[in-house]
Design brief:
Blueprint: H1 4-7, H2 13-29, H3 36-48, H4 55-66, H5 72-101, H6 120-136, H7 143-146, H8 149-156, H9 163-177, H10 190-203, E1 214-230, E2 234-245, E3 252-261, H11 271-275, H12 281-287, E4 289-299, E5 303-304, E6 311-316, H13 319-325, E7 347-352, E8 355-358, E9 363-367, E10 370-374, H14 387-391, E11 395-403, E12 406-418, E13 421-426, H15 437-462
Parallel strand pairs: 3-5, 10-12
Antiparallel strand pairs: 1-2, 1-4, 2-3, 4-6, 7-11, 8-9, 9-10, 11-12, 12-13
Helix pairs in contact: 2-3, 2-5, 3-4, 3-5, 4-5, 5-10, 6-8, 6-10, 8-9, 9-10
């Protein structure tokens, strides 16, 4: 891997992010009575997209908004401009990663599948609430304003095609409610709330949430590692893998995800107990085996819509062997325009022959003389992989991410030398069950916690 390309400056990146940051600060104070500094930031956003098809509409929107006369269409144009800028940042960073790893470029995504038309009144109601938020600003939010989302979300939940937007609005409103009143906030998550706001705005456009056409995948699936996303009330395991088509086509990078609700007392290895029943792939990950897929649904973006009935355990497939042999020729899936954002970058890579530097709070890999920071904080507690194992490793399978202005590596598995022999340690080693003593203890503790919760729930129901 050409690590030097990951540290070189990307032309135009700082300017694009500066325009986004300026607009995000505008949302802090709100758009009801814009101040001179907000007008300057709005003009900066318009200038940043001046060479794009959005130029005219965004310039008008910036002018009207600065004058305090913006309507919903103007705010939609500003949200689109912000999304387009972050999309350009995403594309520039992905192009740099593809050049650094020498991996084939993905084809453009397939046309969107035809979808059912959703009730326009619900989309209009959601857009109205989001525009009210933008006018009030994060410093002007209160419980009455934030509570306006509740009836909209409730109505949307009865429409299956609107549940994506409903879940986004519900979570966003919950975050805002927990921060009310905005005038007393000492710290505002400016980028995050602007991300949620602009994404929700775009999803209120009819047809914006239509999924890409779904194809069928038949062939061999070779797991690379598991990324765990944990929340107090939910957990998701995302398996990154290489798919080799049965017809001999180009290998592809794909993902398979499984999610489950959880009580906040179930943590660590106990998470697997919630996820295992829904995906046989987790057992294959633990056992280091491939899976044979038969007409498994897969989106144009490389997400497998997992169905255990269409998968069978295959032969042994050690992830580091897969990373060395199959990963270099696997093509990455494209990303639809509305989903292009720097936080979505998660490119599987294999690193070997690096030096490890311990900088106290974080570990750094020295790759071909270049520094690559390791995001050990993303290593889940639900497996045997630890920061200490990463620091003593000689090879690493990880996800290349971008955060806070630099590329970071999130380890999924490492190889280290134990008694002069290479030993692999995987973050998802306990996914399908384990005989490892530490894993067994953690599983038992989680089982005890779930048993207690079930007993308490039973007593409450009997009352």
């Amino acid at each position: 891997m050409r690590a030097d390309l990951l540290t070189d400056a990307v032309e135009g990146l700082d300017e694009a992010l500066a325009a986004v940051d300026g607009f995000d600060q505008v949302l802090v104070g709100g758009l009801l009575r814009p101040q001179p500094a907000q007008a300057v930031a709005l003009a900066g956003l318009a200038d940043a997209v001046a060479g794009s098809p959005l130029a005219g509409r965004v310039a008008e929107a910036a002018e009207k908004t600065a004058a305090g006369a913006a309507d919903e269409d103007h705010l939609m144009a500003l949200a689109a401009a912000r999304t387009a800028l972050l999309g350009s940042v995403h594309d520039a960073l992905v192009a740099r990663v593809e050049e650094a790893v020498g991996r084939p470029r993905a084809e453009e995504p397939a046309a969107a599948a035809a979808g059912v038309e959703h009730p326009v009144n619900l989309l209009v109601a959601a857009r109205g609430w989001l525009c009210d938020l933008a006018r009030a600003g994060w410093q002007g939010i209160d419980h009455e304003l934030v509570g306006g989302a509740a009836p909209v979300v409730t109505a949307m939940l009865s429409e299956p095609g609107l549940r994506r937007l409903a879940a986004l609005l519900d979570g966003f409103a919950a975050e805002l409610a927990a921060s009310c009143p905005g005038a007393t906030l000492e710290r505002i998550p400016v980028r995050r709330w602007a991300d949620l706001w602009s994404r929700a705005m775009l999803l209120t456009l009819p047809g914006a949430d239509r999924a890409a056409a779904v194809a069928e995948a038949t062939g061999r699936l070779l797991p690379l590692g598991v990324d765990v996303h944990e929340h107090a009330t939910a957990v998701q395991a995302q398996v990154h893998a290489v798919f080799e088509p049965a017809d001999g086509g180009t290998p592809r990078l794909v993902r398979a995800s499984v999610s489950a609700p959880k009580p906040d007392t179930v943590v660590g290895a106990g998470l697997w107990q919630l996820l295992r029943p829904h995906m046989s792939l987790l057992a294959a990950v633990s056992e280091g085996r491939a899976m044979e897929l038969d007409a498994m649904p897969v989106t144009a973006e490389g997400d497998l819509i997992w169905d255990d009935a269409r998968a069978a355990l295959g032969e042994s497939a050690e992830p580091f062997t897969t990373a060395r042999v199959a990963l270099p020729t696997a093509a990455a899936a494209p990303v639809t325009p509305v989903d292009r954002h720097p936080t979505r970058i998660a490119v599987p890579v294999l690193l070997e022959g690096y030096a490890v530097e311990d900088e106290g709070e974080r570990v750094v890999f020295r790759v071909a003389g270049e520094r690559l920071a390791v995001d050990a904080g993303r290593v889940p507690a639900a497996g045997p992989l630890t920061a200490e194992a990463v620091a003593s490793s000689a090879a690493c399978i990880g996800l290349l991410r971008w955060d806070a202005g630099e590329f970071l590596l999130q380890p999924l598995a490492v190889e280290r030398t134990v008694r002069k022999k290479p030993v692999a340690v995987h973050a998802g080693a306990w996914a399908g069950g384990t005989a490892d003593k530490a894993g067994v203890r953690a599983e038992k503790a989680a089982t005890d916690a779930v048993t207690v919760l079930r007993e308490r729930a039973g007593r409450l129901l009997r009352k």
